[in-house]
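Hey team,

Filing this mostly as a record. A colleague (T.K.) asked me to run one chain through the structure pipeline before their review meeting, and I want the input and output archived in the tracker in case anyone asks later how it was produced. No errors, nothing strange. Just documentation.

Input sequence:
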Amino acid sequence: MKHTLNLTGRNVFDLDDYSVEEIEKIFETAKVMKEINSREYKKIPTLRGKTVATLFFEDSTRTRISFELAVKRLSADVVSFTSAGSAMKKGEGIQDTVYTLNAMGIDLYVVRHSCPGVPQLVNKYSNKPVINAGDGRHAHPTQALLDMFSIWEKTGSLKGLKIAIVGDILHSRVVRSNLIGMKKMGADVVVCGPRTLMPPKIEEVYGVQCEYDLKVAIKDADVVMGLRMQLERQNEGLFPGLGEYTSRYGLSNKMLEFAKDDVLIMHPGPMNRGVEILPEVADSEHSIIIEQVTNGVAVRMALLFLILGGKPGREVA
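Output structure:
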């Protein structure tokens, strides 16, 4: 494993701050971490003595568990914080919460919040590295990294691949980080969904192709990623109903006949089975959805290892 690029002390607010070489370094490190996770004994002592705080001001299951597993498998300590039941319910703000945690010796913060920019605030108040675990509709860089790693692991490179992302593009923070990362890594990206769920000028802003016809979007695609249809948006009148959405944009075997024969099927989760993706596709031999979850732990271990200055040795060889 090459260690020519130093990511020690870096923040992960989004992927626009990372070069192709740095992203590839994260992938190479994640590959090693994934091998460690396949062993009977999954814990290595490389970050022993470090303490990571997970600050989740917004509900999460998989991202939180994935990060906390990653911390523990590197032998660091984890402090799990939620705003529910905390002093924030008594009026304490983010600034004083971070000051309090910092006084306890936190080395790195993992932050999820419904408002964009909160990870930057935590970094400002703590002067410690921060990993963005999702901030509003803005970004979700570790999800994008694990998505890209899942493709890279199967194909060896994202360069020249046609990747179609289908669904609620407008409200997805996952899409924004993926568009930045995938384009940076040389992929040709197509976004597809109802016009009411498509951000304005997305083609100009991200340099991607925008389609409203699913058959056109996934024609000859190497990768097709479905996005969660945010059912809470249905009351906003952004699309007529779930039945119509599924008939036009749902990923089915019939629809995927337009993609390449060896197409990879992805979904960042959680899935609404039968809405944006049918079980016949989610559970097919082309699906790497479960592998994405597995890769999430490896990618987050890689980031923690690189940012907190883990020293390579026999335990990560």
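Quick notes for T.K.: The mean pLDDT is 91. Strands lie at 51-56, 77-82, 108-113, 130-135, 162-166, 188-192, 209-211, 223-226, 264-266.
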